[in-house]
Write a structure and sequence with these properties.
mainly alpha; 55% helix; 0% strand; elongated
Length: 77
């Protein structure tokens, strides 16, 4: 009986915690995407996505120009 009661309490706490995490996540905005690109991608891919970032010259293979490598691909890709 005690075990069943504790199991229900644990299950309820898990569900509540999951819902809090799910609904408390901040929405992604274009500004956040731009900041993410600037922080994580621009060093290699360049500020305009042309593959000419300062760190890109040290990579093999070199980063490609997004205009050509993503041509014809949708956001779903």
């Amino acid at each position: 009986m005690i075990t069943t009661k504790l199991s229900r309490q644990y299950l309820c706490m898990t569900i509540v915690a999951s819902l809090v995490v799910l609904f408390a996540a901040p929405p992604a905005h274009a500004q956040a995407a731009a900041a993410l690109y600037s922080n994580k991608c621009a060093a290699c891919h360049g500020t305009d996505g042309k593959g000419d970032g300062p760190a890109g010259k040290y990579l093999n293979p070199k980063p490609t120009d997004f205009a050509s490598s993503l041509k014809g691909k949708t956001d779903d890709w």
